[in-house]
Amino acid sequence: MGLDTTTRVSELEQIMTMAAPKISSGLPAELNTFVGRRHEVAEVKRLLSEGRLVTLVGVGGVGKSRLALRVGSDLRRAFHDGVWLVELAPLESPELLVPAILERLEIQDRSIRPPIEVLVDHLRDKQMLVLLDNCEHLLDECAAMVETLMRSAPQLRILATSRQALGVAGERTMPVPTMSVPDADGAAPSAEAMGRSDAVRLFSERAKAVLPGFEVTDANRDTVAWICRRLDGMPLAIELAVVRLRAISVEQLLARLDDRFRLLTTGARTALPRQQTLRALIDWSYALCTEHERLLWSRLSVFSGGLDLEAAEQVCAGDGIASDEVIDLVNGLVDKSVLAREEYQTGVRYRLLETIRQYGRERLRSSGEEAELKARHRDWYQDLATRSGQAWYGPDQVDWFIRLRAEHDNLRTAMDYCLTTPGQAENGLVIATALRFYWIAAGALREGRSWLDRLLAAEPAPTATRARALLVNARLAVLQSDFEVAAAMLEQCKELGRRHDDMVVLAGTAYVCGLAALIQRDPAGAVELLGEALETHRAAGDQMGAVNTLMYLATAHSLLGHDEQAAALYKECLTMCEAQCEHWFRSYTLWVFGIETWKQGDTAQAVEMEREAIRLKQPFDDRLGIALCMEALAWMAADDAGERAAVLLGAAQENWRSFGGPLFGYLSAFHDTAVAVAREHLGEQAFDAAFHKGTELSPAEALAYAMGRAAPRAKQPRDNSSPLTRREREIAALVAQGMSNKEIASSLVIAQRTAEAHVEHILSKLGFTSRTQIAAWVAGQDPCGGPS
Questions:
Q1: Angle between the 741-748 and 752-766 helix axes, to the nearest 10 degrees?
Q2: Choices 2.60.120.200, 1.25.40.10, 3.30.450.20, 3.30.70.100: CATH for 369-578
Q3: What pLDDT is attached to residue 233?
Q4: What rounded mean pLDDT belongs to the chain?
């Protein structure tokens, strides 16, 4: 096959079929009001201004996660590269820690480097706040990773939540207390004392959601105060208790808490009272559920990261729960605040809070049903993965991609079960193999290879299942330019394909070999191998394999200058995709066919093809594919619209940074030519200015510009038109808003003395003597980049 192990650049399918992780705002929206915690929020901000790693510690249910989210939300504007939440609770394997962060930060790892190196390279110059939520079960791994990041990324700050400190040098820890409760001094609390209590305020806010019109009055004030005291001001405990007001009064609620807590006197004497209280409250919530609701609660604990109704019906029904009962039981658990209901792109999903999930798992384990439910869970997600693989080439492709995204944690859990349960590795290979296009579309090449490597090692039998798993693994390796490893796996694929007379494996082997040849700039060899693959795919009736192969075969012919043959193959590929209402292969075919059309002189048609490709890619959040189309649009603009080309090239450079570097091999000639032509048309200074303008565009602005919908605007004064640095301009804007140095320090998470120094520098650079003059100067600046 002639795989060149020294070649480092992956083109074609690496470029054409990888997609970015799901684009996110970085933090989830708050589903209800945030109550109290003013002192704690201020203290966390102060700690972050003094140190780069702050860990919120406390027991489960005390509100660590919600406090971190509130601080992160308040500080969005202080971090140029954003505030990002990484939820670690669904991760059961330490190996997934860094890949999960790469995914959440929208970093596409195409290399075979250690994931931590990729993460460090991306964060090295980022001004970012990362929230690591629920570190306790991966404590050692989190500590090692955080220490590496702290040393390598000087502008990075991390806010972690954990039940214990990470133990990293420079870490500042803040124990998160329970909410303040009214003093128990024997007298009825005053209205003023009640108003000062965060626990009472939370109780009142949540009670109003359960009982519209609820108020803390003179008649119930003492009872509410005692409830909050009995719950030790534990936020989760209050949330769980308030839901009972749908059925009982506050007086009845207090009475039942008293009854329940008396049972704690025989509990573990070494446990903290708050831990006892929380456990007791969940025990009580469990006791208030019907027998079938309790059973469903425990069974739902096998899911990771949420589930939909269909999954609950398939996995949890039977042995005491009829399938048609599940929806009513789910509603009951939602009403009792055991299950959280969440709106998702594909419909409603449900999630157990981690503390409640762990409680349910204990109940499931004690019932003796855990092994059976974990097997049912695996069976369901194996079936889901298999159906997704079969349906990928069709009209429901986007829906399947979104669904697999939502189920990623459950798929991981299912494969982990297969690895850790004797005799189940082959089922794991079925799942990992069925996800072949998901691994590519989600940009999860490394993770897909990791699962396949471990499962193949656990199941060495020379079965047809192994052959297909090896083929997917080899394909992912080629996409990472790991050609030597791919070559060894492809030899095994050939042997097993012949042994089992498996035409799909044989066709796929020829296809991956042809892809490797194409990536390594051997288009003649690629034509031969891909031609063989196409013939075998068609003989096997594998239309999806034929479409995938046609796209690359056409590209190989294009590289050889066989323009008519390439165009005919592209058109055939598009016709097949359109007949199936398929988006993924069609979008990438339009991208490369657009380049071929432009080469043949029809620039207007080529531009429309690239924009149509972008429209098809958007439902997948395919940032890489969109970036490639934007780059092609820049080439197409170079001859006649040099400034437009330069702006798009600048925007593309920012995209490549998020993917770990340039993505060009044979395409680099087009890029270099476009840069040279645009420079010649504009001149050095104008080209550099337009290019810089492109680097400042947000992804949404760059996309709108590429689609011809808007002209780009600079968002800040240029460095060459202002004596101030970007940070100083930011602080000047806050001064203009009337903020004091203390308020600026809090807003930007810097020390007050640092804010004072910045203001002094601003006054000195501008020759001013007062903050009023700074405000007037800011008002006189043109938002497009210079003095008005």
A1: 110
A2: 1.25.40.10
A3: 87
A4: 85
